[in-house]
Amino acid sequence: MKKKLLFCLFLFTACSLESPKTPSWDIPLNIPLADKNYTVEEMAESEEDIIVLEEGLIGFQLHGDLEKTVIGNFITLSGTNAQYNIGLERMGISDISGGVDEFLFDQLYDNAERDHAKIEPVLPFQFQNIRGTKLEDSDFTFVALNSGWALLTVTNNLPVNLKNVVLILIEETTGIEIIHAPVIPAVNVNDSSSVSVDLSGKVVPPASHWTLSGESPGSGGEPVPINQSDAVRLSTKIKEVNISKANSVLPEMRFEQFESLLLEEKVGMEEVAFQKGFLEWQVENRFPLVIDIDFSVDVFKHKITGQSLIQSVHLDPWEEKTVRVDLSDYVAYLTAASPNSSQTVPVQITGGTLGSNEIKVNINSSHEIIVDVTFTGVEVDYCKGWIDHYEKDLGTTEEQSDLPSRTDDLENVEFKSALLHIRLTNTLQVPFIFESEITGYNDGKAVSFFVSEQVYPTGTDGNPADFIIEYDHNNSTILDFVNLLPETYTAKSRVLLGDGQTIGYLASDQFVETDFTFTIPAKVKFNEQTVVLDTSKILVDPEDMPAHDSGENRVSAETTEKMSTAEILASVTNHLPIGCKVFFHLDHDSTQIVDHPQVVLGPIEIIAGKTNMQGRVVQASEQQVVLKISKDGIEIFSNNSRGPIPVFIATVLKIPESPQTVQVYSEDYIQVVSLARIIVKLDKENS
User: Per-residue pLDDT tens for 554-576?
Assistant: First the structure.
């Protein structure tokens, strides 16, 4: 009974159901769409001036250089000149004759005239202020002496000895004593005695005469020949004379003068060789006499012979001459002055006047020789010694800065640090200071900062050496310069050669050249922007088209008609310090797929990567999503035409405007990996 009931129920049920259907099942088709890693470095490449810096930082670099500056004419001696005046006070005369005076026996002894031509004893006698007779004239009529002394020689031609002889020179018009000679104790018969008299400051006028005083013991009772014309003679010689004025027959006057030629430059040279230039002597003879002069510079040695520099000049009365010595033939060997002292070159001037040929001439203190000595056109080949901050201009360079205030993909640039790297290449073998004033200009404003650095020589081999100078925001005002965002900037530079004490070697062919780089890491704000990371194409073939095996992504219309589900699977990794969005755009037309797509999937909201205290991303954010295509969207895969139609799928990244500046590195990126999955429902009948 129970079996019958169950069977009836089955029949009833079976009669109420539809006819059985053909079995079916789902087949997924996976089509790769995108595998794109979009880096900040790629963003930077779209900017003309932004580059990847050290450690992956994004920023700017500005480059400039100063052309090689050869030291060249580093010492000119152009300010070195001197004038020397050589007057009578500098000139010496070996001796001048004061003439010969005679004092007769009958002037000195009362009985000489009475006993003339007899042989008689001579009684003791005295004589006082006896004026003599001039036998030989003096060389001078008048003379004023700065210095000198007179040699007075008394010769006794009388038949008796003389004692306590005194000579006095008297000015005739006033009777004033000019010279009072010391006592000569004795002058024996037929003998001479001399005495010297200091004439410094004395003036011997035109009208003057000598007087003779003294005594004689007589002949001691012995008869002697008596001749009234026997005489005592006085010979006067003026020795080692320096005169202030005179009317005189002048013998040769000699002079020797030692001078120091002061060098204007702040140098202490031990050795210096000249490439070119002259030591020039301008000489003016203001004497009424012929003059010969020798100029000697012992420390200037001829390069070939080794002989000291000597220049001779011959001048007639009142003549002027200019003579030159070519310094390119000479090397100077000097005693280096101590620091803070002046360097000098010793100069010796010697010479003399020729005699006046027995002619008396008037001469006075207005007569002189004027010497001007000057270095002209000097260029030094090399120099050994110390130099004290000798300035050499390196010139000025002007550059475009290319620091934009706004860029295309990376907006408002902000600078919190900067580095100026200067490479200074030189062959100098003296210490020096490098100085540069760097000035930026923008919209009528100017900002400067200064570089000053002591550089020490690296060797003595003459090979180029590099010296690195770095300034950043910690040790300079470089950020004031950078944040002006200069359109142009100039670098005006110089070197100050030497430190005033270190002995070194400096040659004309030594050089300095510099190149410099501003490295400026940038904190940036991202602009709102849309980036197409990748675009894939799927060809939908018509139903009657045979299958292709071309390697392209192709499906048939028959397959898409049986499409039950379509979706896009995406994996997004964000290593940026800001969030962003990912979309998928579908369209038959690739030209409008970004702005006017038929189908839009998304957005996928991507959070920013995790950053450290410095704002650097240390951990990327990751997200996997599945975006289903709606039934209306699936229609884009239909094809009722006679030929294939494309379906373009674009992976679109949208970066929003960042609310603040962030620090980005070239390693930062966003990566999207995606595929389209089409699920096709198949039945056994159609399989």
Answer: 888 777 788 888 889 999 999 98
